[in-house]
Amino acid sequence: MFSGSIVALITPMDRDGEVDFASLRRLVDYHVAAGTSAIAAMGTTGESPTLSTAEHLEVVRAVVEYANGRLPVIGGCGSNNTRQAIRLSRAMEQMGVTAGLSVTPYYNKPSQAALVAHYSAIADATGLPQILYNVPGRTGCDLLPETVGRLAELAGIIGIKEASARLERVSQLRACCGDEFLLFSGDDDLALDFVRLGGQGVISVTANVAAAEMAELFRAALAGRTAEAQAGQQRLLALHRALFCDTNPIPVKWACAELGLIASPMPRLPLIPLAPDGQERVRAALIKAELTGRG
């Protein structure tokens, strides 16, 4: 269903912190033209915790409309409230979203048994295929491979975005989940190794500013063109790291504005714009990746 470079799309905002739908449309067109495999809208990089439910759904609906069938859309539908996750999943199913991206419940600190109950309830309540999202560094909750294996037996659970920065998880997940289960890296700097070990691709922050480069890198990787993929990864490695010099998506929004892809670098409070030292680091990484002067 999915493979290659999938962008974890930012949500552009104006100086007042309101969603900038004109910039959002330009971003969708940019990813279509660049060969991005799919768009994941309203995940962590999309600042989903700070948007109201109405705004959240409006952004996903707009991305589906702007994409207009030219590439698949994955909608962020995770929540630490199981009922809310079901509501979001049902709403997105009606919009024509291809799959949902469902982060582990943050702050609640559920047990592995509770995670099985949470995701089983979502799968039972909606026909929208779900991609699990494990990012323990942000949620305080680690979805273990054995638990993913149990969830992979459910018809509605089709894959996982694994952002634990632990490459051993690839073989563990494949052993627990079988060959058809989709495995995506959530760590850009490790994503090439993740694919070499058996993953299908990446759900990427870097693709926001290097869409064509990421798309080609993972086309090469999946086709077994190892030297070409490695060269692409080396070109982008400093950028992968610079985009996490502050809390995501602060640096990548600044980079998108610097390249003229969006009108404003503003995140929504409680996040604030990138500080000058961070700007210098990201600008240097953009130059090293040969991305400046474009937009």
TrEMBL record:
Amino-acid positions noted as binding pyruvate in the UniProt annotation, renumbered to this chain: T45, I203
Active site: Y133, K161
Residues that span the membrane, as ranges: none
InterPro entries: Aldolase_TIM, DapA, DapA-like, Schiff_base-form_aldolases_AS
One example GO MF annotation: 4-hydroxy-tetrahydrodipicolinate synthase activity
Quaternary structure note: Homotetramer; dimer of dimers.
Record protein name field: 4-hydroxy-tetrahydrodipicolinate synthase
